[in-house]
Amino acid sequence: MEARPTPYHITAPATCPSYIAIANPEIPRLLCFLSSTQDQGQLSSGRSRYSGGGGGGGGGGGKQPRRPRKESHSLPLLRIDSTRMPPEPPQWENVVGKGKALHNAQVDAQDRGDPDAIFPKLEQMYDVERSQKQPREISGTNGLEPLLERTGMRMSDTLQFRMIWRQGAPKTDTSTTLRMGMNTEHNTVIRTWAYRRHDSTRTQLGTSELVWQEWKKQAGDHARDLKFLIDGPITNDVSQRIIRYANWKKTQREVGQMVTFTRSETNKDEKSAFDALMGSDNGRYVLRMLRDHRKELGNMEVVSVTTWAQREHSNVFLLMEIGEVGDMGE
């Protein structure tokens, strides 16, 4: 079995020429034990921004008077490489649970033979602007192209574009409840914007239902051929943290690489990462749509989800692939 990479990258400062570095198992920091008292004196001054206490002299600049040399156990912290394993998001267990619960709800509804859900027509509550756009017009240069290649699409292809507003809301780009594009040739939906605060009516429809109704209008009798759903660029900070942490559950990856998770994962960490991605704000609407419209969608499920970030600090994307149900049991 291949050994997993160490979660932290050790970078020794120039003033620490001889050291042994260890990872504290309780808190994510690295400690540097120095082999010479001279080096120890040079590095132990200053207050650690991680430790919240002690660690030698505080304060301002200026030359400090030389103190008598003595044994010290105040250890400076090494810089942690920002491209390495991030801390677990506090929402992690919550979104893992949501992903599992929504999948189980679909299984239970299928086992009971429940009919598909019926919702009001979106035109009763929303205004819709319909137009045609290319992917680059809705995503710019944010890195959508590599994911489109997975679907067979190109940046020059045409999307049937929808902007949806709650009735009575100002018709501005930033007041939309949902923005999405569809391509029926490649059976792909791209959701680029969803903002629930712009949809605070009592009778609001969920994002999953808005996406479904527009897709069904566009695809007609071929609605069940839906294959890919892309979400992004994702600017939700919580979702970004979940996605980046999920990538580390799979394996250590360099920025700019796609990471794919499948429902059939056998590794516990990778399976929890799949559930977390689908339980995040950017995955739940797909599971709800598959649950509410099981028969019309041919009892499909999300069989894989791919994460993608073009650069370390760029927005991230999710690509969810729909497929036939195998063994839907846990």
Topology:
Elements: E1 10-11, E2 19-23, E3 30-34, H1 37-43, E4 79-80, H2 92-112, E5 126-133, H3 135-139, H4 145-151, E6 159-166, E7 178-183, E8 188-194, H5 207-219, E9 228-234, H6 237-250, E10 259-262, H7 268-279, H8 284-292, E11 300-309, E12 316-324
Parallel strand pairs: 8-9
Antiparallel strand pairs: 1-4, 2-3, 5-6, 6-7, 7-8, 9-12, 10-11, 11-12
Region (Disordered): 41-89
Biased composition (Gly residues): 51-63
Explain what you see:
The N terminus is likely disordered. The chain has eight helices and twelve strands. The chain folds into two domains: 85 residues, no CATH class; 233 residues, no CATH class. Helices cover 27% and strands 22% of the residues. Strands 5-6-7-8-9-12-11-10 form an eight-stranded mixed beta sheet. Strands 1-4 form a two-stranded antiparallel sheet. A hairpin with a 6-residue loop joins strand 11 and strand 12. It is α+β, with helices and mostly antiparallel strands and 330 residues long.
Q: Main sheet, how many strands, which sense, barrel? A: 8 strands, mixed
| Total of DSSP H or I helical runs spanning 4+ residues | 8
Strand order of the largest sheet: 5-6-7-8-9-12-11-10
Quickly give the structural class.
alpha+beta
Measured between the Cα atoms of the first and last residue, the distance is: 25 Å
Q: Roughly what fraction of the amino acids lie in strands?
A: 15-25%
Into how many domains do the coordinates divide?
Answer: 2
Mean pLDDT, nearest integer?
75
**Helix content estimate:** 25-40%
In one word, what is the shape?
Answer: globular
Order of helices and strands: EEEHEHEHHEEEHEHEHHEE
Low-pLDDT runs:
1-64, 67-82
Task: Tell how many strands the DSSP assignment holds.
Answer: 12
C-alpha-based Rg, rounded: 25 Å
Region (Disordered): 41-89
Biased composition (Gly residues): 51-63
